[in-house]
Structures are given as structure tokens and as C-alpha cells.
Amino acid sequence: MSAVVDAQGLGKKYGRRWALTDCDLEIPSGHVVGLVGPNGAGKTTLLNLAVGMLSPTTGAVQVLGAPAGTQQAKVGYVAQDTPTYVRLSVADHLRLGARLNPNWDDSLAQQRIQHLRLDPKQRAGKLSGGQRAQLALTLGLAKRPELLVLDEPVAALDPLARREFLQDLMEAVADQELSVLLSSHLVSDIERACDYVIVLVDSRVQVSGEIDALLDTHYRLTGPRRDPKDLPRGQFVVTASHTDRQSTYLIRTEQPIHDPAWTVTRLTLEDLVLAYMGRDVQPERPVLEVQR
């Protein structure tokens, strides 16, 4: 399966601060990928590098098999503030989209506008936040991209508008068979829409892979206090906590856990994401990538 995004040693520095560091990432096609992490983790920087809006300080990134920024006709991008032009009408936006995009699907755009019950004559500045987000999504989808990149597209929406946006996105993915890279700091959005996840913390990718595969290889172990060096080889410790008598580990392993001293529990996606977000970020720690 080919990669829609392939980053090797990718980094971006602003002054003395690294917004993204040592990013090695290969995102296979055909997935709805959730990029999750706290505010300031580097999610927007990674997306802007991928769509060619920023140039890397170190390393390189390819999108759809070519250097980032050279495949504009094949990449749809909805930025964090779901950009629309406040003085332009809905119909003006569609006309602009048709002029700027060689693969523009006007029939798709018009059908979505009718489905959303948007008045073509209404200026974007008079639309609600949810309506502007849907208009921006329509522009992204109607250019018929192979990859759709969405940067926190529902962060400012109320729960109902957020659910409607994500539902429309999933329907579009099923209809168009496109790949999606969606950033969010809300795990619930990732659970609802994505089948692949990347956790980014303090400018570093901590883990990436298909969600089902990640959940099948991560466990919580609770039992008598034990030093981590006494754990079997092949059990990678993500987080650990201890009391005087008890240890709790969150581990990654592909091997069965046979030790009867442990109480073993499976993780939710939220458990897994929060564990990686809460661990100390150290350069020497390996990035975990799990695929099937």
C-alpha cells in the first residue's frame, strides 16, 4: 500500500524553538488518520509542512509520492479557522473553487449546498460557525482530492454541529474513497471518524498506527510492586506508577502475558492517547509504529 504522507527526519524550527522534531512518519493510503495531541504539540506545523505551506528546517516530506506542495490539485486543505471570505456569497465561493481547481466537481458542490440548505446568495460572514465549516468542507471535497487535510475543523463548533460535520465527512470518504488527515485535540472526534491515529506531543511523534492494532498490543498491568527491568523482554513500558506494594504499568507488547501475578486489562483509545500524552518526552525513546 502506497504512502500518502512520507516524512523522513522532518523538523521545523522557529527561532530557538523546535515546533516539530525528528519526525519519521509513513501514512498509508486509504485511511482516515487522526492526528491528536495537546495544543502547541506541533499538529498544525506538521500539516502545513505536508501541504507545502511551510518549508522544513530539516528532513523532507513527500505527499502522494511527490515533494510537499507540488500536488495542490490532488490535496484538499481546510485550515484551522475554516477559512471563508466574509463578503463573498456561498455561490461566489463555488465559482471561485471552480476557477481555481482543474478537477472541480460542480455537481457535487451544488448537491452538498442543497443538502445543507445553504442559501447560495447568503454571504459567508452571515453564516453560523457550523455552516462556514460545512462550506469549507464542500470546497475541499468538490476539488476531488486524493488526500483531504483538515486542521481542527470542528474545534469551535457546538456538539451537534461537530457531529453533523464528522458524519458528512465519513459519508464523503465512503463515496469518494479518499484519504483523510484530520487533526484534533478531542479523542472523541478521533474515535468517531478515524481508523488510524498519530499521537504528537511536544513536537515529537510518540506513536502511530491503525487504531485496532494499537489497542490489540497495549495493556494495563496491575500487581505486586516490581521494577521495570524485571519485566520480560518485548514488554515496552509506556507509563508506570507505584505505591509501596503495587505497580501499575501501561505496556506495549505483541507477546501473550502469562504472569499470573498481573491483573491485565485492555485499553480504550482515550486511555492509550492520554498515556502517551502524559509520558515524559525524551529524544532517545523510540517512536512506536503499529500496522497490520
TrEMBL record:
Has UniProt tagged this entry with the keyword Cell cycle?
A: no
What region holds the ABC transporter domain?
5-227
Kindly give the InterPro entries that the UniProt entry links to this protein. AAA+_ATPase, ABC_transporter-like_ATP-bd, ABC_Transporter_VariousFunc, P-loop_NTPase
The protein's matches in SUPFAM superfamilies, at most eight in alphabetical order, are given as: P-loop containing nucleoside triphosphate hydrolases
One term of GO molecular function? ATP binding
Q: Which Gene3D superfamilies match?
A: P-loop containing nucleotide triphosphate hydrolases (3.40.50.300)
Keywords on this record? ATP-binding, Nucleotide-binding, Transport
Q: List the protein's name.
A: ABC-2 type transport system ATP-binding protein
Q: Which organism is it from?
A: Kribbella pratensis
